[in-house]
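does this look right to u?? molybdenum atom version
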Amino acid sequence: MTLHHLRGPAAGLLAGALGVCVGYLAGGLTGPAGAPVAAVAEALIDISPPAVKDFAIREFGSQDKLALQAGVLAVLAVCAALVGALARRRPAAGLAGTAAFAAAGVAAALTRPAATAAYLLPSLLGGLAAAGALWALTRAAGARVPAARPPADPAPADPAPADPAAPPRRRFLALSAASAGAAAAAYAGGRLLTERASVASARRSLRLPAPAVPAPALPPGSDLHIPGLAPFITPDATFYRVDTAIVLPQIPPSSWRLRIHGMVRRELALTFADLIRRPLIEDYITLTCVSNPVGGPYIGNALWLGASLRALLREAGILAGADQLFCTSFDGFTCGIPVQAAMDGRDALLAVAMNGSPLPVAHGFPVRTVVPGLYGYVSACKWITDIEVTTYRRNVAYWAQRGWSARAPVKTESRIDVPAPGRLRAGRTVIAGVAWAQHTGIDAVEVRVDRGPWQQARLAAVPGIDTWRQWAIDWDATQGTHVITARATDAAGYTQTAIDEPPAPDGATGYPAITVAVAA
Ligand SMILES: Nc1nc2c(c(=O)[nH]1)N[C@H]1C(S)=C(S)[C@@H](COP(=O)(O)O)O[C@H]1N2
Ligand SMILES: [Mo]
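got this back:
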């Protein structure tokens, strides 16, 4: 193996990179979700079985989508190198390989819910650029041994190393540099275009009215301010994010519309201005992901501001027999909120703000639903654009299609945040955490060290029953290794089960436990 042998794979890699970057640039013009890598990654998310999503969330957390795109690029790189190696001997094979990639990109882009005919352009143009680059590079790489022997595979029209002024090595290097430069330029252009289309400035300049129904004042002592304990209110920056979007939907409020239709007496269509003209309700609500394992991080508490979903549905007039609000996001994701939960008087919101500012784009700007007491995948539709009043028999939402349960009330659970697992000094210390049973409320948390008795933790104050609740208990830590376990009891009198269940299909259960090593 010499450097000379690596020219084929290098040609493949460069052509692949150029194709991907040209596709990204074209996506900047036609809609970034149609760019080849993003489209393939999103299509993979849609077709991957729930176990894979579970694995990705567990292993990569909120970095799951970065990891997925890196994976797509890695697979692409290996294939491109192989195609390049092949193309050196058989140019037709190189063209066929490139065409196959372009076709996969086009197919993935056209299956995107927001796809228009223009979505086929990025992969098509990327494919053409890659094919051209591959053809030129493999031709330049063509000669096996430059001077001494005649070319191994002489093309009748062009005996490759003929021109003494441009020795093949120089020509190959020059073409490689040109391809890499073009790829970098296309990437930079694509970035610029994508950022220009962003709604960041529309979000910054948006002014929202004051709430007609302000949130209850936070009672003193709702945050125990214990280092290491999750704060009562989760800042936007650390609020967990779970969704299927590789490219975040960019929806200016001026073009947002919501349609409410289906089993209603009167269809409604709202603009953003219509929505925020309605009396806005403010409330603290804790959101939880069904994929959160016991002790996991996929839970957060925020102050939400939004219009009442119930009031809107009353205006539309729900017909008898309807039991599901089938909510569709701009990006095609769907949630199935139980009609009963939206109508029973809890603060089911079409939310426009989170923690005092317009929703962050990643959390659903400009409008999402928030319904206390239900896992996010059935209740918290981000970038919502459509509500069809229907039945669970007729419509099956995104995660329910993939085996998760259609209705998903949050399970009573708790988590231990402090002490962090690891080493500790003997003596008085504090054990603390959070517990939640949204829209029921938490009445007690008990803690046990090793096989000792269950002891009552003290509970922080809460503004209502829709949030999590901090708890803490003092502990005289003794030398040795200890297992600390906790369990919560909700306001309905139910104590969380000790039975360990995984997240699928309707939420993890079991007591949270940590192991600490206490030094003398
Ligand atoms: N459009 C859209 N909305 C969505 C999702 C999604 O993938 N797409 N995921 C849901 C899930 S599974 C959860 S747990 C919550 C998470 O909301 P967050 O990202 O604001 O924390 O959003 C829900 N709404
Ligand atoms: Mo979720």
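Residues 143-151, 154-165 have pLDDT under 50 and may be disordered. idk if thats expected tbh
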